[in-house]
Specification:
By secondary structure, the protein is mainly alpha-helical. The protein has a single domain, classed as Four Helix Bundle (Hemerythrin (Met), subunit A). It is 76% helix and 0% strand. It has 5 helices and no strands. It is elongated and about 55 Å long.
Amino acid sequence: MPLRSIEILIGEHRQVDKVLEELEGLIDEFLTSPEVPDAAKQALGKVVDFFAQDLILHIQKEDQALFPALEKFLPREQGPLAVMLHEHHEITEAYRGLREGVAVLDQHPATNGPAAGRIRDHGRALIHYLRTHLFKEERVLFPFAEGHLSQEDDREIARRFEEIRANFLVGEPARQT
């Protein structure tokens, strides 16, 4: 029987996939215009808002609910959990760089300017990190979880997801607990 907590996380992954496609298209648009169009600026703002809310919340759910449950079977300091935690840090840093670029885009709207360069660099890094990370979770970590966690573990993880969501502050960095 599939775990509800894993189904929730996979559903969130599909949302991330859609936003990554949008971000990739926006970055590609930079190559065809001397200035970042206003519509692209607005769309980038929505992408950053999604990451601030949904992606960071997703990372916290994994770090604070799923991973601690998996620590019964896997050490946190090495192996898959250590890799996932390290990648969460890289993802968070790339998101911050993207957010900072978007924040100053109005002052530097040229597509060859520093804000656009920051958006391109951090956006591409974020796309890369997230795509490889989601693949590893869905092909390795989540099947492991489904093979090892009980239905009782699953209910507790889902309960923790709700608790984390209720206490979430938008844009807060993922906490390593």
